[in-house]
Amino acid sequence: MRIGQGFDAHRLTPGRPLVLGGVEIPFDRGLEGHSDGDVLLHAVASALLGALGEGDLGRHFPSSDAALRGVASTEILVRVAARLRAAAFGVANVDATIVAQAPRLGAHLAAMEGAIASLLGVAAERVNVKVTSSDGLGAIGRGEGIAAQAVVLLESAEGGDAGGG
Ligand code: MG
Fold it and tell me: pTM, whole model, 2 decimals?
């Protein structure tokens, strides 16, 4: 088995859609970034790369690569999932936490879990997404941005149940 953790934070800015966990959320601002700024998918992808011992997102998807400009975060996660399968690992589970002062995200968590599970090709019950506010503290508490962290457990596909659900 392998464990990995990931973290990401992006700034909120007007005039962009807010996309978290592959789900578009109604809000007056969205996250800055090359693509959709989806901090949750970035944290999950980073955790998966970490569990594989394959560095970080910047190494695999460098912002200097013009071919990757505007690449969707969903596509990034799909590509990382393919690396996982190539290395003969399956996803045992994913647990993630979004840190956001606003908007309220509770009603969207199940959709995010479903989207992430679908992108990874695992059963939805293997993916858990939580949300917390930072209780008004710091930059995120002032609503300047949104952060996410994720932990993943991988299991060798050669050991039987590969996480296909
Ligand atoms: Mg990011």
Answer: 0.93
